[in-house]
């Protein structure tokens, strides 16, 4: 098990910030250890997964 301690505390910053980004792979690493995917899904440091939360197709605006 990794003994990493996040250097970014919630009290110091209102929201975690990006510390590494791999746009070609579709993900970013946040200072709190979370991985955020371009499809809006997340992988949290404790292993929990937040499924992508996309807008329904009928609500998307289509450019002409």
Describe this structure in a few short sentences.
With 64 residues, this protein is mainly β. It has strands at residues 18-22, 27-30, 35-37, 42-43, 49-50.
Q: What would you say this structure looks like, in words?
A:
This is DUF5999 family protein. It comes from Streptomyces fimbriatus. It contains no helices and five strands. By secondary structure, it is mostly beta strands. Strands 1-2-3-4-5 form a five-stranded antiparallel sheet, with no helix packed on it. The protein is globular, with a radius of gyration of 15 Å. It starts with 17 loop residues before the first strand and ends in a 14-residue tail after the last strand.
List keywords for this structure.
0% helix, DUF5999, DUF5999 family protein
User: Unreliable segments (pLDDT under 50, ≥5 consecutive)?
Assistant: none
What is the helix fraction of residues, given as a range? Answer: under 10%
Q: How many β strands by DSSP? A: 5
User: Quick one: overall form?
Assistant: globular
Question: Helix segment count?
Answer: 0
Q: Whole-number average pLDDT?
A: 74
Strand content: 25-35%
Instruction: Report the order of strands and helices.
Output: EEEEE
Strand order of the largest sheet: 1-2-3-4-5
Radius of gyration: 15 Å
The profile of the biggest β sheet is: 5 strands, antiparallel
Oligomeric state as shown: single chain
Distance between the termini: 52 Å
Tell me the structural class: mainly beta
InterPro entries: DUF5999 (IPR046041)
Protein name: DUF5999 family protein
Pfam families: DUF5999
